[in-house]
Amino acid sequence: MVSSGNAVLDVGCDHAYVPIYLVSQGKCPEAIASDIQQGPLEHAQQNVDSCHLGSRILVERCDGVPKHFREQFGDAQVTLVISGMGGLMIRSILEKAGSCIEGIDEFVLSPQRDDDIVRYCIGDLGYEIRDEVFLEEDGKFYPIIRATKRKEGENAEKLTYEEALWGPVLIENRDKVLARYLEKRLDVLGGILHDLAVGNSTDDRRAADIYHEITAVSRTLERIGG
User: Fold this and answer.
1) pLDDT (tens digit, 9 = 90+) per residue, 129-153?
2) Which residues lie closer than 8 Å to 163 by C-beta, 6 or more apart?
3) Cα angle, residue 195 at apex, residues 190 and 199 outer, rounded to 5°
4) 8, 91, 107, 180: which has the fewest C-beta neighbours closer than 10 Å?
5) Greatest CA span in the chain, whole angstroms?
6) Which helix (H) or strand (E) holds 61?
7) What 3-state class would DSSP assign to 98?
8) Cβ–Cβ contacts within 10 Å for residue 204, how many?
C-alpha cells in the first residue's frame, strides 16, 4: 500500500520490520522508525543494524509523529505508517501531530478495532481514502487503509454509516474477505441476541445497538453480494 519512492515514517514501529522490508526491497529510499517503548526500540535498532541499514533507517524514541521528519526527508514524498493499534490511539496520534500532518502526503493505516473512527478522522484531516485491503490470517481480520491529501477543488467524501465501519473501497469492490467477515459477524451478533433473550436481559439499549448493527451488516452483505 506504500507508494514506491516515498520516504516512510513508521510510528509505533515495534521491531521495525515494516521499514526494514520497504527499504531493503528498494521500494522506499529511507525511513524513520519510532516508538515510545524503549524495549521494542532496542530490538528495532538491532534489527536495522543486522541488516546494515543504519544509514537509511533512523530509529528513535518518540511519542507520536517525530516533529523533525521533514528535516530528515527533505523534499521527498512521505508516507506515514501506523499499524497494530486501536482506532482511538491512531486518531490521537494523527490529531496530536498538529501542523506536522501537513508535511505527510500519504497515510497507510491498519487499525485493530474502531476502524470507523480512523476513517472519519482521515476525512476530518483533509485526506481521502484511495484504496483499502482486508486481510485474514489465523481467523483474524485486518484492514489496511491508504489515504492521500485531498486535491484542490476535490470535495470531501461523506461516508455512510456502513462505509465508515467497513470501508467505501471494500464495499464498492465487493471484497470477498469482507463478505466472510460480515457473515461471521452476523453469527456473533445473532448469538448475543439469543443470550440476551435466554437471560431475560432488560438491557434494551444493548439489544437496540445489536439490532442496529445487524441491519447494517445485512444491508452491506446485500450490497456486496455476500
Assistant:
1) 999 999 999 989 999 999 999 988 8
2) 119, 171
3) 150
4) 180
5) 63
6) strand 57-61
7) helix
8) 9
Whole-number Å distance between alpha carbons of 204 and 56: 56
Residue 65 DSSP symbol: S
pLDDT tens-digit map of 66-120:
999 999 999 999 999 999 999 999 999 999 999 999 999 999 999 999 999 999 9
Question: Is residue 202 scored above 70 in pLDDT?
Answer: no
Asked if residues 78 and 9 have their Cβ atoms less than 8 Å apart, the reply is yes
The C-alpha cell 446485500 sits at 222
Q: Kindly list the strands in the beta sheet with 127-137, ordered across the sheet, starting from the edge strand earlier in the chain.
A: 57-61, 31-35, 7-11, 78-85, 106-111, 140-149, 127-137
3-state secondary structure of 226: coil
In the CATH hierarchy, which fold is given to the domain comprising 7-156? Rossmann fold (3.40.50)
- For the chain, give the number of residues: 226
CA distances from 197 to 191, 200, 207 (A): 10, 5, 9
Give the residue from 168, 169, 165 showing the smallest Cα distance to 189. 165
Residue written as cell 537509511? 56
Cell of 64: 507520536
> From the DSSP assignment, how many helices (H) and strands (E) are in the chain?
9, 7
Summarised one tens digit per residue, pLDDT across range 153-200 is: 888 889 999 999 999 999 999 999 999 999 999 999 999 888 887 766
Distance between terminal CA atoms of the chain?
25
